[in-house]
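User: Just a sanity check before I run the rest of the batch. Below are the C-alpha cells for the first item. I only need the designed sequence back.
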C-alpha cells in the first residue's frame, strides 16, 4: 500500500503512450508503423523499469522539512522555509507542494526545481495572515523524478504542523529596535521637542554653564555661598492603558483585516513603546461586558501577558457598553492615567449616545479616542463621477466623510483628545500622539 500511495505517473509517460497508440492506429494504413509502435512500447517498458529501480532503489533517498517561527505575526509577511536533502546519487527533478492552511485560500502552490546528487537546498516563501488563531499546515509533498521522467515518487514530510498567529509582534520588534536606537523618525514618528518643566525633582547640584537659570535654588545658594540649581529628571512610571472596543463597529474589514486586528496590533506596539519610555502599560478589552483587565505594570513578563491576552480577543456583534467601561475605570484605576481608546463611530448619533461617558472618563484621566477613517470612502471621493448614479454615490460619501470629521471636532470641543487615522497608519499616528503628550507634560 505504501508503494501504491507514493507511485505516480508523469505527464511524459501519458504523452508517449498517446504517441504509441497513434502509431498503432496509423498501422492500419501503413503496416510498417505497427512494428515501430511495438518497438516503442518495448522501449517504454524498459525505461519505466529503469526509472522505477532508480527512484525506489534507495529507501530514504530524500529528506524534507518545513521551518517557521513558533508563531506567525498577524498582518505581516512571515517567512516559511522548506529544506530538502538529496541522498540519491543522480540529478533529481523535484515538484514541491506544501499544504498551506485553508485560511490563505492558496490553491496553486508549486515549486519546481532540480537537486544535484547528495546536496541540500532551501526554498523560501512568505505568508501574510490576516486573522489571529491556529493555522494548521498539512504535509510537505515532494515528487521526485529522474531524467527519464516517466515515474514520480512522492515523499511526505512535516504532516499536521500547527502554528498560532499572534498580534503583530514583528511590527512591535521593529518599533522597539527603532526606539532603542533613537531612530523612530525612520518609521514616520515625529521628533517632538520637550517643552515646559513637567519633571520630577532629583537633587540640588552646583551651577555649571548651560544650566537653566530658572532652576536656581536661592536658599541653597545662600547657605553654600555658591550658585546651586535644582536638577530634575523626566517623570517616569506613568500608567498607559490601551482599551480595545470589541463591539460590532470593529468588525469592519480593510485590506482583509478587521478594525479590531488593526487596534490590537497598535495596542501591542504602543504598550512596548510606553515601557521603553519607562511607563507602565496596561490593557482592557470590552463589548457589552468588560472582557479582560490587565493592570499596568512594566517588564518582559507584562509584555508577554499583553501578547497572550490580545491573541484571544474576538469581535462581538453587539453594541459596546461604555457605561460599564466608565464604571470599571472608576473602580479599577485610581491614579490619573493615559487612556487610549480604540473604537469607531460612523455617525453623530452613535457618538451622542456615548459622549457623556467619554466626558466622564476624560474628567478623571487623559483620554485619547482613536477613530478609523474609511479609506473606501476616500478612494470614492477622489474618483471622478461620470453618471448621475456616481454623482449621487459621491454626494453620500462626502456626507459620511464630513460627519466623521464633525465627530472628531465634537470630541475635541468636549475636552477629549481624538485621532482620526487610516487603518494602515494607525500605529504611527497613535505613537505620535503619545509622544506629543509626553513632550507637553500632559502625563
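Assistant: Here's the designed sequence for the first item:
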Amino acid at each position: 500500500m505504501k508503494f501504491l500511495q507514493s507511485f505516480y505517473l508523469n505527464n511524459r509517460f501519458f504523452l508517449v503512450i498517446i504517441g504509441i497508440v497513434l502509431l498503432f492506429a496509423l498501422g492500419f494504413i501503413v503496416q510498417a508503423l505497427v512494428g515501430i509502435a511495438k518497438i516503442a512500447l518495448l522501449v517504454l517498458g524498459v525505461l519505466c523499469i529503469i526509472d522505477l529501480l532508480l527512484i525506489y532503489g534507495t529507501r530514504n533517498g530524500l529528506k524534507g522539512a518545513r521551518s517557521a517561527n513558533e508563531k506567525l505575526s498577524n498582518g505581516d509577511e512571515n517567512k516559511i522555509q522548506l529544506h530538502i536533502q538529496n541522498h540519491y546519487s543522480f540529478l533529481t527533478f523535484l515538484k514541491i507542494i506544501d499544504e498551506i492552511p485553508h485560511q490563505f485560500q492558496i490553491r496553486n502552490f508549486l515549486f519546481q526545481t532540480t537537486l544535484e546528487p547528495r546536496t541540500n537546498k532551501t526554498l523560501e516563501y512568505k505568508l501574510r495572515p490576516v486573522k489571529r488563531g491556529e493555522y494548521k499546515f498539512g504535509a510537505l509533498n515532494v515528487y521526485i523524478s529522474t531524467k527519464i521522467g516517466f515515474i514520480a515518487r512522492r515523499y511526505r514530510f512535516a504532516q499536521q504542523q500547527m502554528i498560532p498567529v499572534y498580534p503583530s509582534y514583528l511590527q512591535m520588534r521593529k518599533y522597539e529596535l527603532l526606539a532603542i536606537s533613537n531612530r523612530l523618525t525612520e518609521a514616520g514618528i515625529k521628533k517632538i521637542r520637550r517643552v515646559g518643566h513637567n519633571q520630577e525633582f532629583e537633587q540640588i547640584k552646583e551651577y555649571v554653564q548651560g544650566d537653566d537659570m530658572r532652576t536656581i535654588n536661592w536658599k541653597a545658594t545662600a547657605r553654600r555661598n555658591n550658585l546651586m540649581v535644582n536638577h530634575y529628571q523626566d517623570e517616569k512610571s506613568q500608567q498607559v492603558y490601551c482599551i480595545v472596543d470589541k463591539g460590532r463597529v470593529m468588525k469592519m474589514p480593510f485590506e482583509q483585516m478587521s478594525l479590531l486586528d488593526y487596534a490590537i496590533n497598535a495596542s501591542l506596539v504602543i504598550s512596548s513603546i510606553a515601557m521603553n519610555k519607562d511607563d507602565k502599560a496596561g490593557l482592557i478589552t470590552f463589548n457589552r461586558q468588560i472582557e479582560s483587565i490587565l493592570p499596568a505594570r512594566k517588564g518582559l513578563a507584562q509584555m508577554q501577558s499583553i501578547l497572550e491576552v490580545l491573541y484571544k480577543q474576538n469581535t462581538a456583534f453587539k453594541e459596546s457598553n461604555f457605561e460599564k467601561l466608565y464604571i470599571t475605570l472608576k473602580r479599577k484605576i485610581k491614579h490619573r492615567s493615559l487612556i487610549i481608546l480604540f473604537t469607531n463611530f460612523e455617525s453623530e448619533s452613535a457618538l451622542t449616545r456615548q459622549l457623556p461617558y467619554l466626558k466622564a472618563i476624560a474628567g478623571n484621566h487623559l483620554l485619547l479616542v482613536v477613530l478609523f477613517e474609511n479609506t473606501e470612502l476616500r478612494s470614492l471621493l477622489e474618483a471622478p463621477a461620470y453618471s448621475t448614479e456616481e454623482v449621487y454615490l459621491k454626494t453620500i460619501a462626502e456626507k459620511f466623510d464630513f460627519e466623521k470629521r464633525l465627530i472628531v471636532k465634537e470630541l475635541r470641543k468636549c475636552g477629549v483628545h481624538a485621532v482620526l487615522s487610516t487603518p494602515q497608519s494607525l500605529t504611527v499616528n497613535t505613537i505620535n500622539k503619545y509622544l506629543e503628550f509626553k513632550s507637553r507634560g500632559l502625563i
